[in-house]
Amino acid sequence: FDQSEFNRAVQARRQPGSGFKPFIWAAALESGKTPSDRVNDAPVVFHYREKVWEPKNYEDRFYGPTTLREALEHSRNIVSIKLLNDIGIGPVIRLAHRMGIKSYLRPNLTLSLGSSGVSPLEITAAYAVFAGNGIYREPVSITKILGPDGEVIEEKQLNEKIVLSEQNAYIMTQMMEGVVERGTAKQVQALGRPAAGKT
Fold first, then answer.
1. Distance between CA atoms of 13 and 76, rounded to whole angstroms?
2. Residue 9: its pLDDT value, please?
3. What's the rounded Cα separation, in Å, for the pair 10 and 190?
4. Which of 60, 129, 157, 182 shows the greatest Cβ crowding within 10 Å of its Cβ?
5. From the CB of residue 139, how many other CB atoms can be counted at a distance below 10 Å?
6. How confident is the model at residue 199 (pLDDT cuts 50, 70, 90)?
7. Is 153 helix (H, G, I), strand (E, B) or coil?
8. How many CA atoms, within 13 angstroms, populate the side-chain half-sphere of residue 32?
């Protein structure tokens, strides 16, 4: 704090990259899709006025028909883009905001690659919805202040609300466990306990 009063947890905005993909998958579940639904991981071209966008997977390969579960485990960009295009950008943004993302999210397909900046605190609070059975709990740093005699000087009323169905929160947690067990976050197995997440 002596060197910088900039609070990176709250004030910093960074692109979450593939860390944003679970919000797209959660919105897909809300739209009626299942982890076993398939999306064709194949080349796709988008034309915007005079610009052409030919997105690629990280490995610069295509994998053909891929289940949503496998696509999340291996962070397939093409599936993410096609999924966002299919279910619509609006539902994904609305769900992400319900889950605790407060930052402005640019309404275009690059959102599927995590192009809009978010703070570490808001994305952590949003991820906690998956672990919390669909309940958003507003992060607080001070819950209560007591005086020298134990009297309550100030107490924060905790704000929580259901923002995702318990069923979809469970399914998302199971799919993100697969990211750790079989996918791009295998290194997390070194913790030696159950874990779910996204690279």
1. 24
2. 85
3. 29
4. 129
5. 14
6. confident
7. strand
8. 2
